[in-house]
Design brief:
homodimer; alpha/beta; Rossmann fold; seven-stranded parallel sheet; three-stranded mixed sheet; 11 helices; 39% helix; globular
């Protein structure tokens, strides 16, 4: 919290889209602790990540504006004078993107393009950090996946996030906006959606573990990496503060690689008890499954001086502790 | 025209979006000669490639439907019962895409997604061949550019075409539609737009050469490849006929690589006379210039048995001959 690297953010005028969501609200808490001037914009769409309890304790310390990033005029007002925009608003459900591709397009393509046009005209000074996703790589050709890997998204969400990311890079290159995209791996921690598996399967695992109910592990052998949200927040802040990050898309990985089965065991260990049931992938899910994935995030570590600080065991323990205390606010 | 490889298309029910445009109308002429049942859909937006003279001679031999691919309901009707859809409708101007990104998004992203959703529901049997573009590669890391090269589009049009292409691949992979994308290099020949440089600089070169006026060569040292439209049409037909093409994006290159200056000399030679003026790139254009580009299209040649048949000199000669006769219909 008192990391000297972030001292320059004291007093900085920051806007966070998706600011009441999982990562956005963790960013908000951190930025308030640093002393930044923070505006949060969020639409609180019930199926997405926004939850007012996420900003519990920030009353009077942040400005909250409930509006949708598809709302061009509210955005035009909100970006003005902002020095840093953490652009995290998005539709993140892969199955939703297949069932309703048009809404995904509106949020993940059009609204991103609109935001960038708006910044170009009304906030050309703003640095923008965009939350992209490892999903845009699709099924890896090689591991770990670095930024030289082809993008081959396997769902509508991935295609639209890929376009959304490239709009940012383009506006950086052509219009001199300063924009960086972070291709986040699975992020977890306090304030994530745990009501269901819409945000990530790990959310529902943590919930069920807290409720002393068995959770389901689909497949189990797949290798993945997981980023504890405090580390993700570090990455976002460093991306905003490091001039060399502008114009690039960077992988953000975890502190280690682990199979889902081993992760399930760690969740149970962090919880002190629990069980899980191993399941076969359903056909619908299998078609868009990408097998193993873990990131080579050396480019970002080198450019921004970032390194994950929270080991998986510790992050899971903190997550469980959070939901043991606050689970009712997330159901 | 009487190529035995295309005999299977006799009687085939075909829909061409952008069917009154440059490549679409050349496809239409060829398919009519083969004996296919052809429906053309085109919006005839004045700034785009559609020109009714392009389908001169096809009266009574094709069904012409003037509507826009943004028009969901007309598309729903038009795709029904079609066995092959050549999906060529698009916004192609790079500068327009920067000045009006939203229209580019509507046409090159949303309409593509809508068309695919419509096919999934109302024409699941259709094979779809999508006209993608080499523009999505951006500035090459290496030459010739093969399909393993990263996509790094340098304008809004390139980003949206990239998304449009990936929607096709996705719907092939997930829903069993049969879709292929061809990343076309600079295509030229009869029926291209020559009124201005909106479609390609080569159009305005050919026009000015025919008018015995000097044309302008920006830069001049850049290496490029050029596909004569008859060869492009061959590629589209083979993509539709070759089962192994489904689910892939293929480069389509030219018969050779040439610098713009040497191309200018060839145009003058094909025309029998003429001059050009060498110009420096303007700053606005320079920022999105990609330097040299030429394709490695070996993957498509191998998969579909395609090879360009018209040498550049011959293609330019035929183009000049066409515009000498019909220039007034293109101004």
């Amino acid at each position: 919290m008192t990391d000297a690297r972030f001292a320059a953010l004291a007093g900085a005028k920051v806007l966070i889209t998706g600011g009441i969501g999982f990562i956005g609200s963790n960013l908000a808490h951190r930025l308030v602790a640093i002393g930044a001037d923070v505006v949060l914009v969020d639409s609180l769409i019930p199926e997405y990540g926004g939850n007012l309890f996420n900003i519990d304790g920030l009353d009077g310390k942040v400005t909250v504006n409930i509006s949708d990033i598809r709302d061009v005029f509210s955005l035009r007002y909100l970006v003005q004078g902002r020095e840093i925009i953490f652009n995290l608003a998005g539709q993140t459900s892969h199955l939703d993107s297949m069932n309703d591709p048009n809404t995904d397009l509106e949020i993940n393509c059009r609204s991103q393009l609109t935001l960038l046009e708006t910044c170009r005209k009304h906030a050309p000074q703003a640095k923008i950090v965009f939350a992209s996703t490892r999903q845009i790589y699709g099924a890896p050709d090689y591991l770990p996946v670095d930024e030289k890997h082809l993008l081959r998204p396997v769902d509508v969400n991935g295609i639209n996030k890929m376009a959304g990311e490239w709009y940012h890079i383009l506006y950086n290159n052509v219009y001199g906006l300063k924009a960086t995209a972070l291709r986040l791996t699975n992020t977890y921690g306090p304030r994530m959606r745990v009501k269901d598996a819409r945000q990530t399967f790990l959310g529902i695992w943590l919930r069920l573990a807290c409720e002393n109910k068995p959770f389901e592990v689909w497949g189990g052998a797949q290798l993945r990496d997981f980023s504890y949200v405090d580390d993700t927040v570090d990455a976002m802040l460093l991306a905003a503060l490091t001039p060399g990050c502008a114009g690039h898309a960077f992988n953000i990985g975890g502190d280690r690689t682990i199979s889902l089965k081993d992760l399930a065991d760690l969740v149970i260990k962090a919880n002190g008890a629990g069980t899980y049931v191993a399941r076969e992938f359903p056909a619908e899910r299998k078609r868009i499954d990408i097998g193993d994935y873990y990131a080579d995030d050396g480019f970002f570590r080198k450019t921004a001086g970032w390194t994950p600080r929270v080991p998986l065991e510790e992050g899971l323990k903190q997550s469980i502790a959070y939901y043991r205390q606050h689970l009712a606010r997330y159901l």
